[in-house]
């Protein structure tokens, strides 16, 4: 039996290079080998965008196109919309008995995100947002996932899922599969502002669909070593965001770039220009493919519709098992 992958994105904006190196490249690689489910997490996106449903709705298509553009093949992988799988919502309710409020409050990613969303949550976070790790456990287990390709920020969610699975199996009998996380080559890509995480809700991202002009502009403003002022000043690549991105896009030439920067032979303007060129070249085939889907949105709709039907079928079987374990299998 082929092993299964479940992964996904929140439709809160277009996908960026953090997604590419954190999760997308792994998805593309593993779709050959694994039964792959890619979820567009609209229900989860609403937990911190409940007051902006149009934004979430619009970005479902954007996120689907980004996945297809980087090479997800709808013949191999199943792309689906979370809210159309009511089984996930049911599992979330059942699992919520197995998690304490204080455990959720201690989740480091949730803690940090609540801090970032102070304006939305004021002095008290919603039940829905605090509980999103529980719904994520439902997402993963609804597909019997073995492997979950994610960025580093999601590791506490996978731990939480394992915890729920173990508790569930102990109380209700062996029913759920325990998943493993798979973090990409760059598990936490830094933002343009030097923030420790590039995020679509953080205004610090290079999007896969950014035009060459926008990329040049963003890189021009990116943070470099503040002590390197003149071209021939010796620089420290370790504190430079531009060098950080060179590591992703300028593989073959990395040693040279580092040496030239450290010895004062390389100016930041030239260094930024080279980085922009490399990013633009890297994204060109992705953008070409994206353009095709932008021109044929009906194709994307069809892919999502078919994917959702298939995903529903799978999650129905899992829910049946769960209900049996919980003695909720009435009249069967
Ligand atoms: P939001 O700010 O709305 O939460 P996001 O940029 O964090 O958006 P998500 O949809 O939450 O994106 O995450 C989708 C997947 O991409 C997750 O597996 C997440 O860990 C991964 N990911 C997101 N940002 C990064 C990053 N900067 N580096 C590596 N992986 C990332
Ligand atoms: Mg996120």
UniProtKB/TrEMBL annotation:
Keywords: Aminoacyl-tRNA synthetase, ATP-binding, Ligase, Nucleotide-binding, Protein biosynthesis. GO terms for molecular function: ATP binding; tryptophan-tRNA ligase activity. One of its GO terms (biological process) is tryptophanyl-tRNA aminoacylation. GO terms for cellular component: cytosol. It catalyses: tRNA(Trp) + L-tryptophan + ATP = L-tryptophyl-tRNA(Trp) + AMP + diphosphate + H(+). The keyword Ligase applies. Its EC number is 6.1.1.2. Belongs to the class-I aminoacyl-tRNA synthetase family. This is Tryptophan--tRNA ligase. The lineage of its organism: Bacteria, Candidatus Falkowiibacteriota.
């Amino acid at each position: 039996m082929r092993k299964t992958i479940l992964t996904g994105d929140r439709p809160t904006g277009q996908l960026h290079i953090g997604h590419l190196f954190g999760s997308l490249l792994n998805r593309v690689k593993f779709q050959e080998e694994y039964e792959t489910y890619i979820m567009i997490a609209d229900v989860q996106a609403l937990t911190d965008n409940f007051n902006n449903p149009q934004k979430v709705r619009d970005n479902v298509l954007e996120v689907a196109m980004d996945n297809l553009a980087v090479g997800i093949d709808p013949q191999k992988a199943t792309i689906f919309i979370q809210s159309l799988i009511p089984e996930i919502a049911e599992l979330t309710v059942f699992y919520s008995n197995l998690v304490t409020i204080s455990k959720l409050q201690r989740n480091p990613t949730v803690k940090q995100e609540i801090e970032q969303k102070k304006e939305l949550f004021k002095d008290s976070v919603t039940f829905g947002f605090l509980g999103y790790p529980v719904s994520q456990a439902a997402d993963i287990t609804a597909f019997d996932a073995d492997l979950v390709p994610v960025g580093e920020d999601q590791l506490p969610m996978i731990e939480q899922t394992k915890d729920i699975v173990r508790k569930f199996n102990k109380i209700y009998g062996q029913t759920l599969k325990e998943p493993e996380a798979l973090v990409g080559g760059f598990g936490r890509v830094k933002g343009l502002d030097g923030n420790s995480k590039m995020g679509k809700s953080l205004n610090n991202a290079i999007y896969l669909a950014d035009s060459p002009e926008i990329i040049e502009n963003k890189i021009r403003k990116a943070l470099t070593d503040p002590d390197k002022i003149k071209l021939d000043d010796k620089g420290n690549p370790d504190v430079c965001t531009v060098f950080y991105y060179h590591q992703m896009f300028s593989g073959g030439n990395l040693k040279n770039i580092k040496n030239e920067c450290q010895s004062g032979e390389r100016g930041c303007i030239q260094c930024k220009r080279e980085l922009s060129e490399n990013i633009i070249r890297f994204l060109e085939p992705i953008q070409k493919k994206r353009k095709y889907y932008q021109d044929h949105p009906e194709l994307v709709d069809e892919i999502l519709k078919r994917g959702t039907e298939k995903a529903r079928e799978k999650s129905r079987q899992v829910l049946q098992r769960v209900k049996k374990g919980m003695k909720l299998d009435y009249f069967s």
